[in-house]
């Protein structure tokens, strides 16, 4: 039994030295920011349900359905995006997701019920959140640090995701109070997600140029 304990401890130390590195911490911080921004996108429409419905000439259930479609789409799309990430690489899938979230918010801001639903349900949720969250969670939980540290990494990811939701709602409310209509909130969401896009693109470029370890190569 004592030999087993020593061998397990040695394996954990080897796993830590082979996986965790300063570079992995940098990528982890970037992943947390990416998740926070991505999960804030669906909540831009939550605060302004009434004014969005008024501008669209519809019931409040219309923008509410947009948010519901975004989360439903992210759940369904995540199943497919996880498999796609295993084939083409997690960073490329995340890059695609960042593009889709920015495009979805831009489409939703252009006006019209169907544009709101398609922008949120298909682009933000089914392709965007699914494309970002699946590889981001895998990177942060499985690839960047030893498996023994999953206990603190999972709550940290959930904290950042929830913080993004809170920040998105607050930002939308502040911008609506200031401008009196909801388009600036979506425009701000597009801008922040373009920063996300640049950040994910930097990770992809870094992977291609530096040739990281096999566990980070995808």
Give the count of helical stretches: 8
Largest sheet: none
Annotation, overall tally of beta strands: 0
Helix content: over 70%
Q: Architecture in CATH?
A: Up-down Bundle
- Helices and strands, in order, run as HHHHHHHH
What's the average pLDDT?
A: 80
Derived from helix and strand composition plus strand pairing, the structural class reads mainly alpha
Under CATH, the topology is which?
Growth Hormone, Chain: A
Coarse morphology: elongated
Percent in strands: under 5%
Give the domain tally.
Answer: 1
Which homologous superfamily in CATH is the superfamily? MFS general substrate transporter like domains
CATH class category label: Mainly Alpha
Report on this structure.
Helices cover 83% and strands 0% of the residues. By secondary structure, the protein is mainly α. It is elongated.
Offer a concise description of the structure.
This protein has 8 helices and no strands. With 218 residues, the chain is mainly α.
Helix-strand blueprint:
Blueprint lengths: L1 H18 L2 H19 L8 H8 L4 H28 L1 H20 L3 H31 L6 H30 L3 H28 L8
List keywords for this structure.
218 residues; mainly alpha; Growth Hormone, Chain: A; disordered C terminus
């Amino acid at each position: 039994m004592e030999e087993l304990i020593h061998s397990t401890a040695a394996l954990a130390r080897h796993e830590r030295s082979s996986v965790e590195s300063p570079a992995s911490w940098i990528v982890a911080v970037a992943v947390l920011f990416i998740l926070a921004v991505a999960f804030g996108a669906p909540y831009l429409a939550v605060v302004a349900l009434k004014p969005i419905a008024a501008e669209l000439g519809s019931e409040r259930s219309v923008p509410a359905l947009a948010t519901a479609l975004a989360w439903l789409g992210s759940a369904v799309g995540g199943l497919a995006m996880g498999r796609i990430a295993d084939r083409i690489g997690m960073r490329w899938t995340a890059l695609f997701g960042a593009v889709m979230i920015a495009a979805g918010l831009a489409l939703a801001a252009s006006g019209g019920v169907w544009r709101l639903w398609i922008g949120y349900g298909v682009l933000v949720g089914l392709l965007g959140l699914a494309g970002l969250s699946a590889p981001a969670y895998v990177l942060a939980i499985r690839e960047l640090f030893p498996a023994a540290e999953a206990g603190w990494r999972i709550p940290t990811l959930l904290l950042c995701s929830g913080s993004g939701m809170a920040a998105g709602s607050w930002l939308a409310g502040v911008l609506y109070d200031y401008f009196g209509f909801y388009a600036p909130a979506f425009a701000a969401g597009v801008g922040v997600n373009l920063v996300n896009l640049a950040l994910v693109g930097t990770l992809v470029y870094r992977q291609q140029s530096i040739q990281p370890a096999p566990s980070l190569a995808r």
